[in-house]
Amino acid sequence: MSIPSSYPNPSPRLPSQPPTALHQNHLHQDYPYIPAIMNSYPYPSSFGFNTASVAIARERAGNRTRPEPRAPRPVQTDDRQSPYEAILLAPGENKIDVEVDTRMPSAAIFTFHKEDHTLANMIRTRLLRTPHVTFAAYRVPHPLTPNFQLRCQTDGEITPRQAVINACQALIKDLGILSREFTKEYELRKMANAANQQQNIGE
């Protein structure tokens, strides 16, 4: 026996006393499909109002529409910057921007683009050893941005711009000396190792 898809609404409030034969007859008249439900499911042969309520609730739950599945999450894109963006200047971007610091006399702020702590610390250290320089410091505005700001102050004998140029020229000379000394020591060590190998083979 098929169960009808539509059925009358249940009573507003079911009595709480145990069902009697009269109650069961009224229940059969109001819900004619309940006997079919009782026969199709492993319910007990004798049922009351509680059993009928469970059957009605299950029938209603089966007729409910299921919610639509959630849309798949969008694939996360890789937003990491290219390594070349940290060393190559953008079109129209200057390597160094100079800004006069009006809060201190004979002071200026130099913004170096596409550089990091390596160059900043070398220039700062060399500036502190340069004559007529009274203050030199740098800061990195953001750790993910390859820029740093160098603040330089002089005693007025030379401009901060000239002091930075002198420090960079002296730094280039120091790096040239370091490169020559390193190459010389490397070649001497390589020649000494080759001589030791020849001596070991002769023995």
Automatic annotation (TrEMBL):
It comes from the Eukaryota. The keyword Transcription regulation does not apply. Gene3D superfamilies: RNA polymerase, RBP11-like subunit. Pfam families: RNA_pol_L_2 (PF13656). Signal peptide: none annotated. InterPro entries: RBP11, RBP11-like, RBP11-like_dimer, RNA_pol_Rpb11_13-16kDa_CS, Rpo11-like. Residues 1-23, 59-82 are annotated as: Disordered. The keyword Nucleus applies. PROSITE patterns: RNA_POL_L_13KD. Coiled coil: none annotated. GO terms for biological process: transcription by RNA polymerase II. Residues 7-18 have a biased composition (Pro residues). This is Putative DNA-directed RNA polymerase II subunit RPB11a. It comes from Penicillium brasilianum. The lineage of its organism: Eukaryota, Fungi, Dikarya, Ascomycota, Pezizomycotina.
